[in-house]
Design goal:
Elements (H helix, E strand, L loop, with lengths): L2 E3 L1 E6 L6 H21 L3 E3 L4 E7 L8 E3 L2 E7 L2 H4 L4 H22 L5 H9 L11
Parallel strand pairs: 2-4, 4-6
Antiparallel strand pairs: 1-3, 5-6
Length: about 130
């Protein structure tokens, strides 16, 4: 059986003690991931229907974990530093972290990266700088 996936989520696994901060970051990241998803064509896999990218302050897991079609992957992210950025820089960082997580999943699964690269090119945030492997 194959899965068509087109969903990406970015979560923060950091306790900064401020619920409002997590709420705001969640809203900002969801806006960016929604724009990414709107430009992304479906991608066929055998066991993954959604990528969940967990941002951690230190020691991210090297591998991904797939359960019931949900692929969880961890990347480095410092919320406190993020909060110091202006709005444009925050958009750039969120898109960069999204790409880092996707790149990690692509590499771990030996997938062709072109469909993911094409999305970055077409993303409405053309002014955002994204380093693509």
């Amino acid at each position: 059986m194959t899965n068509d996936f087109k969903e990406f989520f970015l979560y923060v696994n950091e306790d900064v003690g401020i619920k409002e901060v997590h709420k705001k970051l969640s809203f900002q990241s969801r806006c960016i991931t929604s724009l990414y998803e709107s430009s992304f064509s479906k991608f066929n896999t055998t066991d993954i229907s959604q990528i969940n990218i967990f941002c951690v302050k230190e020691f991210p897991e090297a591998n991904s974990n797939v359960v019931d079609g949900f692929c969880d992957v961890e990347i480095l992210f410092d919320v406190c530093e993020f909060l110091k950025l202006d709005d444009q820089e925050k958009k750039e960082v969120i898109l960069d972290k999204l790409k880092q997580g996707i790149d990690k999943v692509v590499e771990l699964n030996n997938w062709e990266s072109t469909p993911f690269y094409d999305v970055s090119i077409r993303t409405p945030f053309r002014g955002i700088k994204v380093v693509i492997k």
